[in-house]
Amino acid sequence: MHGQMMDMPLLISSLLQHADRYNGESEIVSRLVDGKVHRYTYREAHARTRQFANALLNLGIMPGDRLGTLAWNTHRHYEAYFGIAGIGAISHTINPRLFPEQITYIVNHAEDKLLFIDETFIPLIEKLSPQLPTVEKIVILTDKTDIKTSLTNWISYEELISGQSDELKWPTFDEQSASSLCYTSGTTGNPKGVLYSHRSTMIHTYTAAMPDAFNISVQDVVMPIVPMFHVNAWGLPYLCTMTGAKIVFPGPAMDGESLCQLMKAENVTLSAGVPTVWAGVESHLKDKKLKLPNLKRIVIGGSACPDSMIRSFEIDHDVEVAHAWGMTELSPLGTFNTFKPKHVALDRDAQLAFKGKQGKVLFGVEMKIVDDEGNELPWDGKTFGDLLVRGPNVLTNYFKQTEPLLIPDTEKKGWFDTGDVATIDPDGYMQITDRSKDVIKSGGEWISSIEIENTAVSHKDIVEAAVIAVAHPKWDERPLLIVVKKQDAILSREDILEFFVGKVAKWCIPDDVVFVDEIPHTATGKILKTKLREDFAGYNISSA
Ligand code: ADP
Q1: Which of 187, 276, 277, 325 to mutate to test the pocket of ligand 1 (most atoms within 8 A of CB)?
Q2: All domains in the chain, ordered by first residue
């Protein structure tokens, strides 16, 4: 027997309609490419998004068409998110930090019809456009009409929408329709596309806004630092729109000083980003002895958040840290570290140590750890195994991929293998020990590179650290620590090795340390271990 409730699909356009009607006066503030600050309300954003959607319809854009964006977090990118999905087309967010060949590959693979680009990326697209045959028009996200460019088929965003009517009834369609497309960075092989649906995005929006996740209310002022070109800025544009919270978009200026200045000026209460961004904010606050009195909470994820960073924000800056884990394949958030009542009773030191775990799952995601044969492993907080997930916001396959992706054998059937290795404690809190390709297998034991890296960066003179496995005649593999030290710091290999004593198990202490000026990063700001493994291939470790 069917229930007798209204059959209304979960569509992204409903978020902006709701914001307009019930929180229409809440602001969206953006720092633009030229440094100017733009501000308007959800109501105005909705009107302009309808104009934009009408412009797309007049250009003949059809449901299912892919439209690419190469853009910073600003109000125009926000309008593109909602306008494109609102008419049933697909917003394909492109990470401008990918290699040019990768950008060419994904625009062609997605068959993008239009590209929306910030001025910053004009030189890049001038170079690539001859190799992008599917792109019919380039829309530059600006109001300027006198841009000097060799591009011939371009129009400014403001020109595109000016004169368009803001009358539009958002169409209704199947909630399983695709809404946005994001490619993983592809550290191995070509980038792979993850195609989200209206339904998966809406389910993620409901669950990720909850108190035990982002905890966003209409009273919040939210700054999504995590880029809109990477996994929908962890869903924040949707979450803020649902709750009516004021949004502050930082644009391209993501250094510590610019972020602190904007957070202070706009009274930001909640923000989210990867550890490298927070390291910049932290050092700016420290150097300038600044306070951000309105900032209550920050969400840190994308890479493991070092213990030292959690302590610095919580103790020195009086800002609550929530550690989160997710991935492109998941919409993207999977877990959040927020406390159960028993953790509230812990002493402060134990609480801060506990925050190093990546946390418990959001409703809608199921998670388990398994051994190589697919047998489920115990939730004892010690046993680690491959982390598998499933749920309505987990992908079933990559865009245009035909071979089945989900695990076919009986034990793991229907689960997605995250490629992460993790423990789960009896309370359901997951902790990542490594990417499966990054674990160091030493004499039959597994060494967690994350644990060693976090310990290393808790040293006051170490800016960044990475650990990779190098071949060893007796132990198969041993850890090599690669370190960027603070400028002018006097720090030796022996000082660092001594620092590890008593902090990690003896056999996990790296065998050797090399100092470098810079550690290579992926397009999403993570340590590029494949490059380090190449650079240090054949490294002769001193204990060998
Ligand atoms: P990309 O490969 O494009 O950087 P993702 O952003 O999807 O893609 O990366 C997801 C991966 O990032 C996860 O599988 C995990 O290895 C890592 N990750 C994300 N959040 C955390 C975290 N809080 N701690 C440790 N690793 C994390």
Answers
A1: 325
A2: 13-197 (3.40.50.12780), 440-543 (3.30.300.30)
